[in-house]
Amino acid sequence: MNEFTAVVEDLVKLFEELIEIEQIKIEAVKKNMVTYVEDCMNREQAAVLKLRGLEKKREVCQKNMGFEGYTFKQILEATTGEEHSRLRQLFDTLSHHVSLFQDTNESARAMLEISLHNINKAILRTHQNNSKDKKNWEGLI
């Protein structure tokens, strides 16, 4: 059980990191700091790989404990006492962090989409202005 709780604690820490990355990304998008956004995306990719590893580790731990395929709720129903209390606290914390990450991630995604839309509009305007200038100079060169 100790290995399982350690994995869940690592998941909580990972989601804390992901939330921080998303918050930095939001600020970077607000300030048009493209390199920071890129850095955040690279850090996210590394975190996703780490998440996959932790998920596999969690599945192995659950299997070793006899809880293969169980949800966290089912694991709670199968535990008692101090173990139950500790797991409930961990699961609640993890659930909160996952929810907060999802909200923050959605905000960052929406801001990126708006920023990309504005960039596309600016490119289109520039292209249209260049076309007008080209027409004005056509035949004179």
Radius of gyration: 24 Å
What would the average pLDDT be, to the nearest integer?
90
- Low-pLDDT residue intervals, each spanning 5 or more residues: none
Strands, count = 0
Distance from N terminus to C terminus (CA atoms, Å) equals 80 Å
Summarize the structure.
The protein is 88% helix and 0% strand.
Structural account:
- The longest helix has 57 residues.
- The chain has four helices and no strands.
- Helix 1 packs antiparallel against helix 2 and helix 1 runs parallel beside helix 4.
- It is mostly helical and 141 residues long.
- The model has no long low-confidence stretch (mean pLDDT 90).
- 88% of the residues lie in helices and 0% in strands.
What are its keywords?
4 helices, single chain, 141 residues, FlgN-like_sf, mainly alpha
Layout of secondary structure:
Elements: H1 2-30, H2 34-65, H3 72-77, H4 81-137
